[in-house]
Specification:
This protein is mainly alpha-helical. The chain is about 60% helix and about 5% strand. Helix 2 (about 25-35) crosses helix 3 (about 55-65) and helix 7 packs antiparallel against helix 8 (about 180-185). The relative contact order is 0.06.
Length: about 325
């Protein structure tokens, strides 16, 4: 066993975070079973990345326990995420919050995967030897509604509930970008927060989220009740809205303020940066058309030229 060649697999944090972490007692029991019986179930991978079996992989490598690897094939990253969600939904002992999140994430991911298969949303006919060719069997790409119905049937809920859970998932992702540890507490059931208050929570700034988190941690009880979380969140939302109303906006600046154009642009550009970052992330899960790429490149080049011109003016000594 000491000379067993080590199989190196890759870890993707986004994939790993979709899988419920084992409690210490569960982890120790798994380790005991692997040492006694060996690794009976293969580690599931996609392109060398683990999509099921992170704990078994870690334990087996540490104790040099032989294991098998089963590589699955998917069309895109979104399809992998949908598979992980569906696989996790079949597990026992997941919280209701995690269940809602996984259903919403599966729905969002399958929509993206289906769109990647058919970006135009229609059956594609192509020319063959100068003649229009129509395949004998047209491939039916699921619509958003059909996807929702399919996932609803798998989880014994309505398709409207699936779409509602998708909103819940998007809100949690927004919170996770600002304060990741808060999402962990929500999914574990430590914080009991209603669907409506989750969407309100997602609107808070990072600073306000930290304050909300600190207020919820004051309690010594195993978990924060719905009524308590609601009061803390609503107070934070009202405070943020009140402060926003008191802050002067670009519209409130003097009519002939020479700094106004620069100030307005300074406030606008961060939203551009956020949009660009979201686009960069989306390229990991989809392959846009050449036409879309070319059009965006032209706009970016035009933007770059204007940025260079503005920088040149700002750097002039007599400006």
């Amino acid at each position: 066993m000491d000379n067993m060649p080590k199989i190196l697999l890759k870890i993707d944090n986004e994939f790993k975070n979709l899988i419920r972490p084992l409690r210490r007692k569960e982890y120790l029991q798994l380790e005991e079973n692997l040492l006694a019986d060996g690794c009976r179930d293969p580690i599931i991978t996609w392109n060398g990345y683990i999509i099921d079996g992170h704990n078994r992989y870690e334990i087996c490598n540490r104790h040099q326990i032989p294991f098998q690897v089963r590589e699955l094939s998917f069309d895109c990253r979104a399809a992998v995420i949908a598979w992980i969600c569906k696989n996790q939904l079949g597990r026992r002992n997941i919280t209701e919050e995690t269940r809602k999140f996984l259903i919403g994430m599966q729905y969002e991911s399958e929509k993206t995967a289906n769109q990647n298969k058919n970006p135009f949303g229609i059956n594609q006919f192509y020319s063959k030897e100068g003649e229009d060719y129509i395949p004998d069997e047209e491939i039916e790409v699921p619509t958003k509604t059909k996807t929702a119905h399919k996932i609803a049937d798998e989880n014994n809920v309505t398709h409207a509930t699936v779409q509602k859970y998708a909103i819940y998932t998007r809100a949690l992702e927004t919170i996770g970008q600002k304060l990741p540890e808060m999402v962990t507490k929500i999914l574990s059931g430590r914080y009991k927060i209603s669907h409506k208050n989750i969407t309100e929570l997602a609107k808070l700034s990072t600073a306000e989220l930290k304050k909300v988190n600190n207020r919820m941690e004051i309690t010594k009880k195993p978990f924060v009740q719905y009524c308590n979380s609601r009061n803390v969140i609503l107070n934070a939302v009202e405070k943020q809205q009140s402060e926003a109303m008191m802050r002067p906006s670009v519209k409130d600046m003097p009519k002939f303020d020479p700094d106004a154009p620069l100030t307005e642009l300074t406030l606008t550009i961060p939203s551009w940066i956020s949009s660009i970052k979201r686009t960069v992330n989306s390229l990991n899960t989809s392959e846009p058309s050449i036409k879309a790429k070319t059009k965006l490149e032209q706009v970016l080049n035009d933007l770059q030229n204007n940025i260079s011109e503005l920088n040149s003016i700002l750097s002039e000594e007599d400006y």
